[in-house]
Amino acid sequence: MKPRVRSRYPCLFAALLLVALALAVAIGREATEYARARQAAWQAVIDKTDAEIKHAVDELERLILTGEQAAGETAALVRSSSMSADHISEGLRKIVARYPEVMAAGVAFDRYGFDPERRLFAPFAVRGDAGLRAAQLDDDLDYTRSEWFLRASAGQSVWQPPRHNEMTNTVTVDFAAGDRIHGAVVVVHISLNAKDIQSVLERARLGGSGRATLVSDGEQIIAEHPGRQTRCIDASCHRVTRSIANTTWTLTMTADRRDAMLPEPLARQTTLELTNLFLCLLVTVAALHLLQLGAATDQRANSKLWAWSIVISLSFMIGIGVIWSFALSVEPARVSPGRVITSRGALEDFQRQTLIAAVRDHRPIPQFLPTGVFIKSMEFVSANNVAVTGYIWQRFKAGSKISEGFSLPEAESVEIEEAYRRQTPTATTVGWTFRVTLRQSFGYGRFPLDWESVWIRLWPKEIDQHILLAPDLEDYPSLAGAALPGIERDIVIGGWTPRRAFFEYRDNAYNTKFGLPSRLIDAHPELYFNLIIQRTFLDAFVSQMTPIILVLVLIFAMQMTVTREAKNKDLVGFTASTIITTCAALFFAVLLSHIELRSALAAKRVFYVEYFYFLTYLIILLACVNSILFTSDREIRSIHYRDNLLPKLFYWPLVAGAMYAITAAVFS
Questions:
Q1: Per residue in 125-153, pLDDT tens?
Q2: Distance between CA atoms of residues 488 and 501, nearest Å
Q3: pTM of the full structure
């Protein structure tokens, strides 16, 4: 029986064994802490969803109570009146004026219930574009055949699903309740603005994958959360359902585990630490095995050495893949002083705080001008110049003295032309087409796995009139960043993929008044429209990484031809001059590619892929040095050992390890 090979260095073997055990324990502890952190984040999402649905139910019930209070006052109005049409109409106007949430209030009498000589009578007051006005429902409709009237007159209080109300020209949610007053069947009906109900759901903070739905007993949708509507598997969801008092409505909110992600810096750091610990453990185990092999020189020992070389190299490559996968799927944390506006509630909070700050600091009260942006196309014309086309519109209240127009202070060239103008009794909307070239500074430090932000900075036309542009959120069906509000659905940005779009306020201060005495120097908020884009990885990988990988493979192939054995030397034609000549050709090919890439990016600092170019230069140099030393007369054990085995054996582990170290350092 062949004797077992023992380690020639028992102390070193024991030390490495202890290191391996310590690394295994560290991996277990780190994985456990990571799992606990993920569970804590998921529990926080669950608690937040429970709190959000409670708050939303309270808000909805407050709206319902408001409608029912208005209905109660309407019924009391009819009871207290002397059946005078003018008295009822005037009372309805006062009720609508008293409740801002109420769009319309009215009464509907049964046939001949108001006047024996008048078949139908249904006055109502409505809040429209021209203000409060009185109208008659019976002028155009036999309401006695409507389902809401039949159910209400039968004694059922009915909240109806949303509908387009021709009288208010808005979508309303209507309430109807019947009663017998002065011997006649009377149905009072109240209309609430459906936007008020929708805004309650929009203010719920449910994350990018959460959703909220308000439905009636017939499963008809009344309102939905405007966020990304994604299908959620029950095992990864937390679903909560609550009933709305005095209605047949139910509100359902769903949280998704995808929103229980750890903060990007923490998740990235944990991923790197686990990967580093695993790779260190693998290298330690490989060292232990090699120590056991000792000085064995048989074919089986060679196979094990090459097997470990391949395993370690592949492990480093997998580690690089893990980091790349994380960088491609998770947007880097943005460090910005701005305030992102993703809902009407967020905009209202910002406006309220701005007004409070203006009063507190004794500054002029700003006027808010609704402004919208729609981007049709975007193209990178150079590393720092972006050409953008689209529409910008502004909505002015009737009688407003604000000057029409806007300016783009960061534009290098601008073409603006009025495209349309629409007027209503209460507002005027003016829209412009624009083509602008924006000059912005992009980092490119993580090329080709980089994310960038392209923004349009907006100023009012008169920058000294204390006007703040406000996002015209009413014109966007969804404000979720992932839904890309304000972006052409089929937009094509060469080499980039749009990921998020949102409005944002940033505080900017200037050290000049621009020659305008009323212009403030202090920092004040300015409106930005941001588009987050991600570089198309496959394009950049094929064009930049593939040549580097191919050159490294060719150098390894040349390294394998290094030999002193006459038979193999004649077969492969190895000479030091041949390797040096080939390496010189590869060097210039890589150098030209490097210069071209750096010029295209106009980078101000070293970027990620550039480190791979530097590594390739070093490998080319070491390959030349190795061939020279191997052919020299001086015996160098590490070079000449077993016909240049060590440089061949450690080539890919060292190259892959260096690539992994670069990747971990850049993305840490």
A1: 988 766 788 888 877 778 888 887 888 88
A2: 11
A3: 0.76
